[in-house]
Amino acid sequence: MLFLSLFLPSYAAPYQLNRLELCDLCDKYRPVPVASIRKPFLRRGLKTAVQALRPSGRTRTFNVPEVTMPIKTGDTVSVHYVGTFNDGTEFDRSREGSPLKFKVGSGMVIPGFDKAVIDHEVGDKFSVNIPAAEAYGEKQEHLLFPVPMDQVPSTIKPEVGMHLHVGTNQGELEVVIAEVTETHIVLDANHPMAGKDLNFALEVVAVN
Fold first, then answer.
1. Distance (Å, rounded) from C-alpha 81 to C-alpha 126?
2. CATH placement of domain 70-133+198-207
3. Which residues have a Cβ under 8 Å from the Cβ of 57 and sit 6 or more positions away?
4. Domain map (residue ranges) of the chain
5. What is the mean pLDDT of the chain?
6. First-to-last CA distance in the chain?
7. Cα–Cα distances in Å, from 71 out to 65, 114, 117, 191?
8. pLDDT value at position 64?
């Protein structure tokens, strides 16, 4: 494992970097943690048969129409989605797999995604634009860390956009190289989608 001891100025708080290592590009563009359960849910509704006895002794069956209720906080919903940036670039979709399942208001997804499904019902198809503030937040300058080039292991050939793992006093942190100069590199610990507005085309497939 490649690692690097780093000594950063006090303004680098709250992270005290102590290890830098290579990592592969991780799946971090989903609006919900990868570990979330993804099983289709039964559709909300009420189907029942009402029998009425006729004088002739025969029975007659009436089908009661299915009733659906608007989604509210606390409901568990399953949705299909396609996520795009404002320039139309697609960053994620669920169509090739199971729908995304989450409990509304539990913090399992970004705030804007939670709000988007409120008051919708099973079968609804709609689109929503989620501003950065309700997605992964704005970029924060204090999460940019300059690292002298002589502290970068010779086995790492730094390039802008390269993803690295950093060991800190608060545990592992994934960063991306935001800048490379002759004297130093700049590590960006912001979420890769920080500062970006997100668009989602959604379809509600189940509610419980």
1. 10
2. 3.10.50.40
3. none
4. 70-133+198-207
5. 78
6. 45
7. 19, 10, 7, 29
8. 55
C-alpha span between 98 and 109 (Å, rounded)? 16
- Cβ neighbors of 179 (< 8 A, separation 6 or more) are 160, 185, 186
Cβ atoms 208, 44 nearer than 8 A: yes
pLDDT category of residue 146 using cuts at 50, 70 and 90: very high
pTM given for the model: 0.65
Tell which phi-psi region holds residue 137, choosing left (phi > 0), alpha (psi between -120 and 50) or beta.
left
Facing residues of 168 across strands? 17, 171
Read off the pLDDT band of 106 (50, 70, 90): very high
3-class secondary structure for the chain?
CCCCCCCCCHHHCCCCEEEEEECCCCCCCCCCCCCCCCCCCCCCCCCCEEEEECCCCCEEEEECCCCCCCCCCCCEEEEEEEEEECCCCEEEECCCCCCEEEECCCCCCCHHHHHHHCCCCCCCEEEEEECHHHCCCCCCHHHEEEEEHHHCCCCCCCCCCCEEEEEECCEEEEEEEEEECCCEEEEECCCCCCCCCEEEEEEEEEEC
What distance in Å separates the CA atoms of residue 133 and residue 116, rounded to the nearest whole number?
14
